[in-house]
Amino acid sequence: xxxxxxYKIGVIPGDGxxxxxxxxxxxxxxxxxxxxxxxxxxxxxxxxxERYLRTGETLPDSAIEEFKKLDAIYLGAIGHPDVKPGILxxxxxxxxxxxxxxxxxxxxxxxxxxxxxxxKDKGPQDIDYVVVRENxxxxxxxIGGTFKKGSQDEIATQLDINTRKGVERCVRYAFELxxxxxxxxxxxxxxxxxxxxxxxxxxxxxxxxxxxxxxxxKLDYAFVDATCMWMVKNPEWFDVLVTNNMFGDxxxxxxAITQGGLGVAAGGNINPHGVSMFEPxxxxxxxxxxxxxxxxxxxxxxxxxxxxxxxxxxxAECIEKAICKALSEGHIKSLEAGKMGMGTSEVGTLIAKxxxxx
Length: 358
Ligand code: IPM
Ligand code: MN
Known about the structure:
- The structure is a single chain.
- It is built from eleven helices and twelve strands.
- By secondary structure, the protein is an alpha/beta fold.
- The strands form two sheets. A ten-stranded mixed beta sheet has the order 2-1-3-12-11-4-5-10-8-9, sandwiched between helices. It has a two-stranded antiparallel sheet with strand order 6-7.
- α1 packs across α9 (297-310) and α7 runs parallel beside α8 (245-258).
- The structure holds 3-isopropylmalic acid and manganese (II) ion.
- The site of 3-isopropylmalic acid (IPM) has 4 residues, from α4.
């Protein structure tokens, strides 16, 4: 942090609605930069489905080397209806997460005031927790294969890799976060230790070991299936949840809908010692492409997380306040695509204006 600081941000708008939401997000970020006297040097990258269809290239290794010189990456969405599932996800998104060792996928679950939740009798005071999802291993490591493919004897394997190092750094991040949040001071280890006994045991023992360094933080355990139920029934029980890559992916879509939907759910792919990447957790929503109807708040909030990680705390808080103002004062009617009562770009402009004024 500091006045006059210049941050080099790699921008990957990506596919579908990605460019629209990123442009709204950048408008807000620029407004914050102006107000808090720092600047953003953005470098645009056209990685995504269109480029892949044109050139056959997903993400070259040279881009990873360039990314290593950035301060952060701001990503819209990756996914194209004409590209077979897995190619872009693995070739771009997961490649960045893995190669830049962004070992934390940080997903705050926060119901903003004025936002409708499908959870009965729950309000902003009840839905405020963070999922710390392990982001570089587990079932996502891409180890496995097929045998006798296409035959009746076909076999498919997909390994779930859990390393002590990978689990421990993730768990430690979760404890640090619970301490920093200073709310319920609880870390809940979400696993399936009653069936996945080997990985479950590693996660639980690691949590117990790390907890010794954080006597003020309580450690809880919850099975992932039961967690889904409690996220709906008693979200107020949670503070910081820590879990593996696959479980974290699944529960954060459920969590997103409890906070009003994918239109507001933001995420950070964090390497605390390297280059992190920020994105809305929703996909490229191809059917809404170019229609200026999708809610950009998730992307704007992801931009806020980016500033927070860069050390621009005040600017991050200001973005958060501006989002709250836009939502609580009823400027935005709904977070659903096409029902906002204004366009994607107008929401960006409104929040950018609030950022300059609040
Ligand atoms: C997410 C997404 C990705 C994931 C996909 C697009 C690979 O669902 O960020 O949650 O599974 O991690
Ligand atoms: Mn997901």
